[in-house]
Amino acid sequence: AREFWSEDMVAFLIGCSFTFEHPLLAAGVPVRHIDAGRNVPMYRTNRACRPAGEFRGELVVSMRSIPAEQVADAVRISSRFPSVHGAPVHVGEPAGLGIADLAQPDFGDPPVTRDGDVPVFWACGVTPQAMVMASAPPLAITHSPGMMLITDAPDSDYQVP
Prior knowledge:
By secondary structure, the chain is of the alpha+beta class. It is built from 4 helices and 4 strands; from the N terminus they run ααββαββα.
C-alpha cells in the first residue's frame, strides 16, 4: 500500500470484538467460530448510523451463538471492553436487526450453532468499511474482515473494571 499513500491521507484504527473472545473462553463461554476454525459471521443490519460527511450507512454486526444459560455471562464479560465494541447491541431474533437469514452472512463465514444457542450480536468494525464501500471514494485501503491489525497491547489493556 505504500505506493498509494500520500500525505493528505488519514488512518483509523478501529477496535474489534475479537478482543473479548479470550475472556469469554476463559469464563467457559464457547466461541463456536474459533472452535470450528472459521471467521466470525458478520451481517449488514437495518440500523442506520449517524452520517459523517459523505460517509453514511447501516450498522454491521458480528454474531456469536451463545448457549442460552451463558448469554448473561457473555453480556457481562464483553461490556467490560467498551472501546472494542463492548456489550451486545441485540440478543435474540435476527429479524429485529433486519437480518433475514443467519446462514448467509454478508462477511465472514456461516455461523456454527447448536441446539439451545441464542444469537448474540455486537457492533462490528466492518461498519466503517461498509460505509467507505458505499461512498465509493477514488481510493481506500482497508482490512479484510476478520484479518485485523495486530499490536503488542494485550487484550486486558482494553478491559475496564
